[in-house]
Amino acid sequence: MTNKLLSALPTTIFEVMSGLARQHDAVNLGQGFPDSEGVLAVRQAAAQAALHGNNQYPPMMGSTDLREALCGFYHRRQGLTIDPADVLVTCGATEALAATFLGLISPGDEVILFQPLYDSYAPMVRRAGGVPRFVTLSPPEYRFTDEMLEAVVTPRTKLVVFNNPHNPCAIVHDAAQSARLARFCVRHDLIAVCDEVWEEVVFGDPLFQPLYSYDGMAERCVKIGSAGKIFALTGWKIGWTLAAPPLTRAIARAHQFLTFTIAPPLQAAIAVGLGLDDAPLIEMREGFRRSRDRLTAGLVAEGFQVAPSQGTYFLNIDLPGSGIEMADADFARLAVEQAGVATIPVSAFYDEAPVTRSLRLCYAKRDETLDRGVERLAKARKIATD
Ligand code: PMP
Ligand code: GLN
User: Fold this and answer.
1) Residue 270's closest CA among 282, 281, 286, 258?
2) Which residues, including other chains, have CB under 8 Å from residue 281's CB and lie 6 or more apart?
3) Is the Cβ–Cβ distance between 62 and 267 less than 8 Å?
4) 70: buried, middle or exposed (CB in 10 Å: 19+, 13-18, 0-12)?
5) Cβ contacts of 145 within 8 Å, gap of 6 or more
6) Are strands 314-318 and 305-306 parallel, antiparallel or unpaired?
7) Residue of 70, 83, 159, 386 with fewest CB within 10 Å of its CB?
8) Whose atoms come closest to the Cα of 32: which ligand?
9) Is the pLDDT of residue 124 over 90?
10) Closest ligand 2 atom number to CA of residue 344
């Protein structure tokens, strides 16, 4: 076996940095998870369902309750009218993405991806036989133009992947950008894979406008969501796709061979959660906003340059702007090994020509965790600049 390549897939940066965080007993501001327990009513519903409900294989497409609850939720929050038959429940957004790529891409199909990009997109597009075509976006607004889109489209282009709100840039693409992308998809008859897992973690306009709602998009969008983000229960891995019947059928064929179905008590509990009023979600969002502001203020007081965060659990610091002349991956390693704080180098979110000047920090943490993180980052900065 020695000369055989056992995996063509990379190790994710989240596994690398959380592993180093454990090894060095570091404050973990890297991988995106809150250090709180998630919405209580939803956890109670899961416990009840595990004790008194069905624990055998639910339907492959997902439980009827959850699929109906998702339609109700998106109608209330985003004004969408979706048939429960167009919903597929998956093992987190990660499986939703994988099933979408495996179900919709044929070998040689081209897929437009915006850089920086979530780390699973490019490896899984390639595993599905697709050929990525990158559009690189630049701070502070990460805007794209018609010219940038037209430069990468070819007769073989089949999909565009659009992550909004955006991880790791922590921006929300505005209505003008969404409308531009929608027109582009219609003009070239493309499918838009919309990774909208952060739709409920935004701090501006509280109601997120999905690409699905733009003219001509309902028939060509795969809208992907995650209960992990909506209810701060990242470990549960309940996700879904919403898409027109031919798309849903193709994605479901891949899902049957990936996981087939998802833990029934968790599906039952998320269905309950989606039917609750919005108060716990608003409260949670306000908590994240306070944490974002606390981490930003702490970092700024220590001389770091922080980019504003419009949503997600993340903010980015600019290293040269903070007086640090090291590449992001080197500084991230120094910070975890010598100062005891884990972060994510943003270069990990590029497939080609990485930009190496930013670090992503997760602020969905308790005050004391954030304060210790700031202290340790200040220590890392001192080591790097002395
Ligand atoms: N897409 C994006 C943009 C994400 O940020 C994440 C997780 N943070 C995922 C997909 C994966 O979501 P899940 O944990 O539900 O698989
Ligand atoms: N999506 C999370 C993040 O961006 C991590 C998910 C994972 O660990 N795969 O930090």
Assistant:
1) 281
2) 39, 200, 230
3) yes
4) buried
5) 180
6) antiparallel
7) 386
8) 2
9) yes
10) 10
